[in-house]
Amino acid sequence: MKYLNEYRDPELAKQYLEEIKKTVTQPWSIMEVCGGQTHSLVKNGIIDMLPKEVTMIHGPGCPVCVTPLNLIDKAIHLALNENVILCSFGDMLRVPGSKINLLEAKAKGGDIRVLYSPLEAVKIAADNPNREVVFFAVGFETTAPANALSVIHAHRRKLNNYSILASHVLVPPAIKAVIDDEESKIDGFLAAGHVCTIMGNSEYYPIAKKHEVPIVVTGFEPLDVLQGILMVIRQLEANKSIVENQYSRIVREDGNTAAQKIIFEVD
Amino acid sequence: MCLAIPGKIKSIALQDNGNVKMAKVSFGGIIKEVSLEMLPDADIGDYVLVHVGIAISKVDEEEAQKTFEYLKEIGEIVELEDAEGDVQEKEE
User: Fold this and answer.
1) d(Cα A250, Cα A65) in Å, to the nearest integer?
2) Each residue of A140-156: pLDDT tens digit?
3) Fold of A12-62+171-254
4) CB contact under 8 A, A197 and B20
5) Which of A121, A200, B53, B58 could form an S-S bond across to A87 if both were Cys, CB 3.0 to 4.6 Å?
6) Could you check whether A12-62+171-254 and A69-168 share the same CATH topology?
7) CA–CA distance, A82 with A154 (Å, rounded to integer)
8) Over 60: is that where the pLDDT of B91 sits?
9) What digits encode the pLDDT tens for the residues A76-111?
């Protein structure tokens, strides 16, 4: 597939690893913020091929994992109500609640539908006017506009039986909290490329400046992650701390303004 | 969770009384319906990044080359810096 396969080229990956080895002169700890980047590091074996001086610290960037327990319980409670169709991304079904998870609620008879897109939930609401349809809307900045768009669609179609159980979280405050924690000694960050696709890069400039940490907005394919790591290390070795964009084929400086407008329209 | 995949727009149609711009997008041959509401300027033939059924960015073809050229580029910068260093040393 175009724009995927070429970023998985093993030969170029080797060259990136060589360059990282050549550049690094001392130990550095780098946090990849997004779970998708962690997945890429592990699945492609990058983590084992990096020089010993480079330690990757896995970041807080997974909205599924950071969804509060009480919201999982609320979703389960709703799902067990006969009048409710609970719609959710598949990732949420195995997350434990205080007693059971959504998968077990489904086994108990809860009408839980696993969807690819929140827009599908609106169609379900239109097709089931006598039941309440609730979408379990988890997500970072990447997913918040899609969840918000479903509300706009339902409103436009004058549906009164659609709502979302929202659990949205922001990335920049999480990065700041990690930096402020005295025990964390992180020298540089790979920022989450798809979050920045929506929000742009501006929120990271003050963080990089104030805390003197390099922040490189980074994609998810093996070459993206390797280039992001190299860019952070080049900054660290040169005693720089600026925001750079490795994922410029996707991330625009101002992000996606249409998507931002949709978030704030519903917010 | 924040997974998004690039695909190519094959066709565009208006739905919901003209309110919603939808595209048929090919992901290596698999066709999916995708909302273009967050990417109003996207056109047939464009590669777009799709997240949970919604196109969130257009792939910039020129920028897409940068990852392949970056190593060469920094190699040239280092060479240039070395050359400048040599010139300065000579001048001194």
Assistant:
1) 26
2) 999 999 999 999 999 99
3) Rossmann fold (3.40.50)
4) no
5) A121
6) yes
7) 22
8) no
9) 999 999 999 999 999 899 999 999 999 999 999 999
Q: Hey, is the C-beta of B72 within 8 angstroms of any chain A C-beta?
A: no
Contact flag A116-B52 (C-beta cutoff 8 Å): yes
Both structure tokens of A173: 């405050």
Checking ipTM against 0.85, whether it exceeds it is: yes
Q: Name the residue among A65, A110, A111 with its Cα closest to residue A91.
A: A65
Kindly report the length of chain A: 267
Residues in chain B within 8 Å Cβ distance of A139: 1-2
Report chain A residues whose CB lies below 8 A from the CB of B31. Answer: none
Give residue limits of the domains in chain A. Answer: 12-62+171-254, 69-168
**DSSP category for residue B77:** H
User: Tokens 């073809």 map to which residue?
Assistant: B61
Q: What is the pTM of this model?
A: 0.93
Which residue in the set A119, A143, A248 is minimally distant from B2, CB to CB? A143
